[in-house]
Amino acid sequence: MAYEIPTPKYLRVLNTLRKRIEDGDYAPGAALPSENQLCNEFGVSRPTVLKALGILKQDGWIESQQGKGSFVRGRSAAGRTSPEYARDAVELDETGDTEILHVGPVLATPRIAAELKIPEGTPVYERRRRTVTEIGPVDLISTFVPVDIAVGTDITKPDPIPGGLLDLIARQKGLRADYATERMSARRVSADEADALAVSADEPAMSVVITVHQASGDPIMTSVLVMPGSRHEIEDTYAVS
């Protein structure tokens, strides 16, 4: 006589939530339904839901925040790690082949304000630097950090930061970067960018706007990377690791 063994209830919850994350129904940074909502949806007890969520957290699919709930991590949903130029923009050790051009408060432009989810004109801290090699400047990176994150850290100081800004923010503010969104477009350099990159005023450039988020979706900082060259605009999401 053959016996049919039912699928454990927690596995049904686990597999369903994981598939929703893989399919993009729950995007990076999105909050999962509350424990009570999941109990009602699947008709299971709270311990069953907690077991499923615990496995998802252990496997790196989600992250729990005290008092806020569970959030989708970028790594599992995006399925890849950051490209090299993105790591240079957001994780670059400033004590290397870099030259600091400006450190101080500026007013957020419409684009930066939208990325950081703040009102236009809100003060933010900017760190603008360029990478210099034996052939001259090769890129220009402007990083914008909300004041509440920057204040009390070395971000506000003009000295080069060893190890990169994300490592500094994690150590001094306890904020962990989880995933980043990227928007890339082709345009002409501005007059200031032409001077910094030592190129002609009509030089085409590839502009990449990279915003780093916590698992909750809250932005930590936005970097604008400008390099000679051009490319059609694209948008991407990847893990910060």
Instruction: List SSEs in N-to-C order.
Output: HHHEEHHEHEEHHEHEEE
Using DSSP, what is the number of strands? Answer: 9
Percent in strands: 25-35%
Which spans of ≥5 residues are poorly predicted at pLDDT below 50? 1-5, 76-80, 230-235
Helix residue percentage: 25-40%
- Tally the helices: what do you get? 9
Structure description:
The protein has 241 residues and is an alpha+beta fold. Helices cover 31% and strands 32% of the residues. Strands 3-4-5-8-7-6-9 form a seven-stranded antiparallel beta sheet, sandwiched between helices. It has a two-stranded antiparallel sheet with strand order 1-2. A hairpin with a 3-residue loop joins strand 1 and strand 2. Helix 1 crosses helix 3 (46-58) and helix 2 packs across helix 3 (46-58). The chain starts with 8 loop residues before the first helix and ends with a strand. The model is unreliable at 1-5, 76-80 and 230-235 (pLDDT under 50).
Could you give a quick summary of the protein structure above?
This protein is 31% helix and 32% strand. With 241 residues, it is α+β, with helices and mostly antiparallel strands.
